[in-house]
Amino acid sequence: MNLAEENMISALSEQEITEIEEEISHLPNRQSAAIDALKIVQGYRGWISDESLIAIAKILQMSTEELDGIATFYNLIFRYPVGEKVVLFCDSVSCWLMDGDKVCAAIKRKLKIDYGETTSDGKYTLLPVTCLGDCDHAPAMMIGEELHHDLDAANVAQLFDEPGEKAS
Ligand code: FES
């Protein structure tokens, strides 16, 4: 490995590199750890910057373009900064049929953002997601790690902190 490559990898912490190498050790080849490696770094940094992507690609011995393709395809890997909590609103058929569009509109009004945007206090980022697997209780969404379902446009706003409040 040349100095330039070493400098790229130093964009990651020792802990991140150790955890990625640990994942690789359980797999048949380094590239198979791509998603796990992206999740590890995102776990520490909240998102995957270009610098992080280049460093991870070096460790996995794959091209940056190839890894970026995986990161972009996998919709829970964020290639841009996101808020403290990502709101994943289900944008699939069962949720549409149960007035998901009205619920989503109420969320957008409450947070004063559209899909792909982050609230001005940095607390929430709103993103559409395909079926969350909770169709029996549509409409559904995730706020951070928490699943919320049977959503109603009249009271969905209560699930979010007021601007300026600390997230619970
Ligand atoms: S369609 Fe929304 S949870 Fe399945």
How does this model look, in words?
The protein has 168 residues and is of the alpha+beta class. It has two domains: 3-73, Arc Repressor Mutant, subunit A (Orthogonal Bundle), CATH 1.10.10; 85-159, Glutaredoxin (3-Layer(aba) Sandwich), CATH 3.40.30.10. The protein is 41% helix and 11% strand. The protein is built from seven helices and four strands, in the order αααααβααβββ. The chain has helices at residues 3-9, 14-25, 34-45, 50-60, 64-73, 93-97, 100-111, and strands spanning 85-90, 124-129, 141-143, 146-148. It has a four-stranded mixed sheet, with helices on one face. Helix 2 packs antiparallel against helix 3. The longest helix is centred in the first third of the chain and has 12 residues, at 14-25. It is elongated. The termini are far apart. FE2/S2 (inorganic) cluster binds next to helix 6. Residues 90, 92-95, 131-132, 134-135, 138, 140 line the site of FE2/S2 (inorganic) cluster (FES).
Index terms:
168 residues; alpha+beta; Arc Repressor Mutant, subunit A; 2 domains; 7 helices; 4 strands; 41% helix; elongated; binds FE2/S2 (inorganic) cluster
Are any ligands bound, and if so which? FE2/S2 (inorganic) cluster
Low-confidence runs: none
Structural class: alpha+beta
Number of domains: 2
CATH class of the largest domain, named Alpha Beta
**CATH superfamily (homologous) name of the largest domain:** Glutaredoxin
Count of discrete alpha- or pi-helical segments spanning 4 or more residues: 7
| Beta-strand residue fraction | 5-15%
Secondary structure: number of strands: 4
SSE order, one letter for each helix or strand:
HHHHHEHHEEE
* Shape descriptor: elongated
- Rg over C-alpha atoms, rounded to the nearest angstrom: 18 Å
Strand order of the largest sheet: 2-1-3-4
Largest sheet: 4 strands, mixed
CATH architectural grouping of the largest domain: 3-Layer(aba) Sandwich
Distance between the termini: 45 Å
CATH domain topology of the largest domain: Glutaredoxin
Percent of residues in helices comes to: 40-55%
Mean pLDDT: 92
